[in-house]
Each structure stands twice: as structure tokens, then as C-alpha cells.
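Interim report to the steering committee. The following record documents the input for Cell division ATP-binding protein FtsE (250 residues).
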Amino acid sequence: MVQARHVSHNFGTHWALKNVSFSLNKGEFLFLSGPSGAGKTTLLRLLYASLPLVRGQAEVAGFQLKDLSGRHVVQLRRQVSVVFQDFKILKDRTVAANVALPLEVRGMPARIATKRVNAVLRSLGLEKKALCRCSELSGGEQQRVAIARAIVINPQLLLADEPTGNLDRDLAMHLMEVFKQFHTFGTTVILATHNRDVVESVPGAKRLELVDGHVTNANWQAPDLEIAQTSELPNSRPGCGPDSHKGGRQ
Ligand SMILES: Nc1ncnc2c1ncn2[C@@H]1O[C@H](COP(=O)(O)OP(=O)(O)OP(=O)(O)O)[C@@H](O)[C@H]1O
């Protein structure tokens, strides 16, 4: 489902990812961990083709990411959903309208779409908020709307960046049950988190740690997995200059 080979990515002079190689089979669950600034979001953005792949090779859901055309980006995103840290929901629209959007885009008849939206909202405890504007919701509720919108299409691959970041422990654990349920039905999941409880809530999941853009640890072995020795990593200062890939897709 996901193959990355020697993937690197720079923002100006700063290398946010360095020579990352790993594979994930269909139906696997992967946690990405590592300190702030390690490159987790950058890796998720590359896999969602919201950043262009400049160095290395990567294949996601059968699409080669290098030189991916706009048409293929659209096709890729029919199968891959993402929950970004900043949610990217439409604040002036209702919860139900936000969650229905990906189904509308796919041309699903409204009656079936409404049923599907209601089921997902129920599974995330949002059914009473269905007709509220997203601008009226708390941060944690907005986060759940973003998750509902991502899972409503039953994606082949779900990418989630700190999806439990704004939630209390009980809600976070409930949400992990929802993710696990999707995973049971065959969805491949890559979830970036700092939360140890979240990682431990999915026994058997793969774990990959990033430090300073390198893969420094993983809980599995494979010929295509490259682990950098932490002691050999150079000290690099994160750059904060202009994004060298401003042409990156959203
Ligand atoms: N658009 C950008 N322009 C310049 N530098 C960037 C940009 N996006 C990320 N970076 C830099 O790339 C590095 C990796 O950032 P990234 O967001 O991938 O880290 P992260 O592991 O997701 O961190 P966090 O856990 O805090 O979300 C950081 O040093 C960051 O400052």
C-alpha cells in the first residue's frame, strides 16, 4: 500500500526528511512518533501528495508519487484520506455538510450519503451537533469533524496527524476504537502521535520513530527499512526560512 525508498525533503536549506525507506502492506497500522520537528507531518504530506516528491521514490495505493499529474492527485485522494493538525474544515458550514462533502464530490446519491454521514457522526459522538456550524464547535469537536470527514469515504489509506491532540484521554481512547474498527475492515492507517497511550492502544501495530528527519527506530525488520544510528546524526538547526516548495499542493 505504501512504499518509500530513500525519500528526502527539504524546505530551503533545511532537510526535514532524510533518506526515509519503509514499506507498509494493505491493512497494516503504523504509528509515526518522534520529537516535534522530526518530520512526521512532512512525511504525511508527501504521502498525500500535498508536497511534491523531489528526492527518492514513493508509491501510495498504486500511484507513483514522483511527477504525479493533477489528475492522478485527484484519483489518489479518492482512496486516501487525511486528517491534518489544523483540521481544514469549512467553519461556516454545518458539521453534516462538512462530512457529506467527500461523498457529494464522488456523486453519491443524497439519501445514501445522509445515512452514511449519520452513522459516522454517531460513531464519533457528534450526532447532536450535526446541524451546528463548525465555527460554533470546540477544538476537540472540530477535530472529530475532520476525522468523520476522513473516514466517511472508507478510504484504503487513512493518514492522521495527531488526531487525538485536542481530546481528553477518554475521548482519545474512544477515537482509537473507531480507528481500530476501520482498520479491522481493511483500511491501512498511518497515525502520527506523541501520545504513548494512543500507541499502546493498538497492539501489533508497526512503529516508526523519526528524529531530525531520519528513521531512528522501528519495531519490525525488513530489508527495505533503513535505520539511522542516532549517534551518527549531525546536529542540524531546523530552518525557518521560506518554504522552498511554495508550489506544494494543499
Ligand atoms: N513549510 C515549511 N517551511 C519551512 N520549514 C518547514 C515547513 N514545514 C516544516 N518545516 C520544518 O521541517 C521540519 C519538520 O517539520 P514537521 O512539521 O514535519 O515535523 P513534525 O515531526 O510533524 O513536528 P510536530 O510533532 O511538532 O508536528 C521542522 O524543522 C520544520 O520547521
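The pocket of adenosine-5'-triphosphate is lined by residues 11, 14, 16, 34, 36-42, 238-240, 243 (CB under 6 Å). The committee is asked to note this result when reviewing the revised timeline.
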